Amino acid sequence: MTISASGAQTSALLLPAIYSNTLSGGSAGFSSLPNSPVGNSSTSLSAQSLALSSNIWAAINVGSRNRVVFWDSVPDFSQLAVSGSLSLVDMQSSACEPACSSNGICTSSGTCSCAAGFTGASCESGFFGLSCQACTSGCLDCDDGISGTGKCLAFNITNAPSSCNSLNGECGSSGQCSCNAGWTTADNGTACSKCASGFFLTSTSDCKICEIGCSACADITGDCQTCKSGFTQDANDKTKCDVEPTTTSSGTVCPDGSFSSGTTCSTCSPSCQTCNGATSNDCIICASGSYAFNGSCITADSNGVCEGTGLIADNDKKECDTCGAKRTSCGISGCLPGSFLSNGSCVGSRPAGTFISSQANTTCSVCDSSCFTCAGSSTFCLTCANGELASNGQCVSTCPANTVAANSTKTCLNCHPHAFNQCLSCPSDRPVLNQGRCLPVCGKSQFFDSTSGSCQACDSSCSSCSGSGSSNCLSCSSSSQVLKGGSCISANCNGTAYVVTGLGVCLSDLVVVPQGSGSAAPLPSITGLTQPTVVTQTPSKRLQWWEILLMALGCAFIFLAVIWCWRRMARKQRAKRTKAFAQAKNIDQSTSWRRRLVRFGEKLFGHRASKRAHNQEMEKLMLISDYQYPPEKRSRYYPPSVLPSLYDVGRSRDRLRAVDSAASRLSGPSLYSQVTGVPRNGLEARQPVKKDLITSRFSASSYPAFHKKNNYNPKSGTYL
Fold it and tell me: pLDDT band at 16, cuts 50/70/90?
């Protein structure tokens, strides 16, 4: 461990710190927690005070007293009951549970950091023997520990079925999967985990083939659910389907070994016992010594395996059947990776009392009768039968020298300073013996009594201590007391000051207030040292009904204002388009001299505004807005217009034309009528008679005589 020096006057207590002066004053030195066991090393300290965070303890040699364990800050080493030079020997976090073995050290994160050669939550396993040797390469699990033999208990598995999401199939190097016979991919996507068509699942989790003639059968029982064409279910055995007898055209039933070829029964192939055709591929039941496989009959080898297949010959079913879910073949060996051959079957785990000799051998061999469990060979016992103790592979009645019997495991354990839970006595750097384990420290409110070799409770006034009685305190349990000469006494802090938690000193001793000529100035009030600042959140205030009403009215006003602005803008745009259209059609004559003359005449003779001018405005609207729709379409497709009908205006216009026509019969219209289009109410001023006579002034009989009398020329329209 190393401690770095610094000129800082205070620290945040995130790391252990020492100070050259009392009350955490002077130059400071900080140290991080070690990440590996310290061993027997020590570091000299030149300090007058020490600061520790709440989850760290430090073991310090003080003078002649070895391993004084500090759990709290020390504001002044001179106030302890022990004195002398200081030397730091160990420092760890107290957050690990269970405590680390001597092969590791507890870190601030609450985990054990293991030394080289050890693994596990408490650094208690992974290697074996007194010299901590690594397990054999390729070994997934071995007999490890101080008293372990290193024998391999489980080997690493190459291309295990799980590596390609398979259950009963072989995985290739590129991740492809090849299912064993009778297996297929299940609905959930797991390969080789469902029985294929024509197979059923047994109570031993194997897929077996259905009986001959059955296309689908029930799991567990194997009862046939669907027979193939030409078969009927056996009345006595629900697992079987019987072949229907064949008959000739004359009604003769063909015996076994023959089939109907029309009018006669023909002999089956020698490979068939029963058939429905002449070739060996037409066999229903194969002849003795051969077995049905994929529509043909094949023989079996000396091991009972159907030739050219990985299936076993079944004499009862007369067909080739599967060997088992975990088998790759039906030979002597042939289990899937991770499975073991035991008593002719492939199993997922080794049965008790068996062993495998190597990684390449998956056959389970039985241990010697003297062993309850063994490894590597039948006579290398890990545990013994008949109540004996296992010691280095042998079964003994008493343990050899330098070993001790462990009744829980029935083994002889080696004595070693790094033993995890087998200790009878402990070394000085881990003096506390607790349930066979050697621990570095007792609890915080305890001290280690070297005389009895056990942990003893501190005095009630002490939070931590170096010995028995009230005069060996290292920190005080009461927040109103401070340490003086190893004893906890009343603090008697000045004014309103108090004892700072974790430092064990009055705040007035840490803060120096200058004294004036008058009355003493009050000590500054510093908050947040003993308790965190609590931030309170004011609950949100609910709105009153009138506030909600005002908000609603405001939203309505904004909405209406937007609608008004939009309508106004639309009217301006429509007026602009109407004016542009009228100018383009030359119907906007409001500023012409003729219009001004009409208005002058209207005012002079007391008439209202000219209907003709009104009609022109109506024509504009009819071209742009609602007036463009006829009444029948307006009622069917469009809402009714709020404007007066133009068709009434049209009828007024027709009456005006009639009046003009009547007036023109006698004479030409007046200038006022021609300009305004409205006949005068009074008498018209006489105008020169037209040259052409109006025909309506003469009767039908007198009109031709009149023309003749006056020498009328119809070509020129004049009288001679």
Answer: confident
Alpha helix positions (H), 121-266: none
Spatial contact of 81 and 471, defined as CB atoms under 8 Å apart: yes
User: Which residue type does 304 have?
Assistant: G
> How many residues would you count in the chain?
720
Q: Which DSSP symbol is given to 619?
A: H
Amino acid residing at 226: T
The DSSP call for residue 677 is S
- Residue 181 and residue 526: Cα distance in Å, rounded? 81
Give SS3 for 533.
coil
Is pLDDT of 292 > 80? Answer: yes
Strand 272-275 and strand 199-201: pairing? Answer: unpaired
Q: Which residue has the tokens 């200081």?
A: 86
Distance CA 158, CA 609 (A): 109
- Decide the pairing of beta strands 56-62 and 194-195: unpaired
Residue 701: predicted pLDDT: 52
Angstrom distance (rounded) from CA 111 to CA 476:
29
Residue 77 has what DSSP assignment? Answer: G
Q: How far apart are the first and last CA of the chain?
A: 150
The closest of 376, 345, 324, 52 to 199, measured between CA atoms, is 324
pLDDT of residue 246: 86
| Placement of tokens 């504009």 in the chain | 620
Alpha-carbon gap, residue 106 to 89, rounded angstroms: 15
Distance CA 297, CA 320 (A): 9
pLDDT-wise least confident of 228-242, 268-282, 322-336, 633-647: 633-647
Peptide bond into 98 cis (omega under 30): yes
Written as one letter, the residue type at 107 is T
Residue 633 belongs to what H/E stretch?
A: helix 631-637
Per DSSP, the residues of 332-357 read SS-BPTT-EEETTEEESSPPTTEE--
What is the spatial distance between Cα 628 and Cα 622, in angstroms, rounded to a whole number?
4
Give the pairing type, strands 86-93 and 56-62.
antiparallel
- Whether the pLDDT of residue 217 is over 50: the answer is yes
Residue 427, number of CB atoms within 10 A of its CB = 12
Lowest model confidence (mean pLDDT) among 473-477, 594-598, 649-653: 649-653
507 near 480, Cβ under 8 Å?
Answer: no
Q: Provide the 8-state DSSP code for 281.
A: G
